[in-house]
Design a protein that fits this description.
With about 160 residues, the chain is α+β, with helices and mostly antiparallel strands. The chain is about 25% helix and about 35% strand. It is globular, with a radius of gyration of 16 Å.
């Protein structure tokens, strides 16, 4: 009963979701986690590697700003961040989880910089001498999220 389209606003979450009557009802940002986990995460950010969900910290800030702007405009439009967890873990690989940005904001404010980590820049982060790669990440726990199976009902209830 809903329709989706890619966002038309730079730095907004990836997908805009509309009701049957064309009203914007939520935004969704998709994150894909594959390959090796941040193996020293327990040491640096106090989360086990297998539970750590990363998001570029500048992007997280832009989602929080989008939500604040929506509220300033008199709208309460949920923003859901979805992580597809496809790391090579036998027991939890292949799952997807989500959380609404207001909950992530509470976690972000509560944990502050303790969940932030900036990796060293590598050759691949630069293009023509300009750093384009984002090296500062913020981490959430898979335990702080909801299973993807619950997201459609949340959206349809809007």
């Amino acid at each position: 009963g809903c329709s989706c389209s890619p966002t038309k606003i730079n730095k907004n979450p990836d997908i805009d979701v509309f009701s049957k009557d064309g009203r914007l009802i939520c935004r969704i940002e998709g994150k894909y986690l594959s390959g090796q986990a941040f193996m020293k995460s327990k040491q640096f950010i106090h989360l086990y590697p297998r539970e750590s969900l990363a998001v570029d910290e500048p992007k997280l800030q832009s989602y929080l700003e989008r939500k604040a702007q929506d509220r300033a405009d008199g709208k309460d439009i949920p923003i859901f961040v979805v992580w597809k967890f496809d790391r090579p873990c036998d027991d939890i690989g292949g799952i997807a989880v989500f959380q609404e940005i207001d909950i992530l904001r509470q976690i972000y404010l509560k944990n502050g910089p303790s969940r932030s980590f900036e990796r060293k820049s590598s050759f691949n982060d630069y293009q023509n001498g300009t750093k384009l790669g984002i090296t500062k990440k913020y981490h959430f726990s898979i335990r702080e999220c909801e299973p993807i199976e619950d997201l459609p009902a949340r959206i349809l209830a809007l």
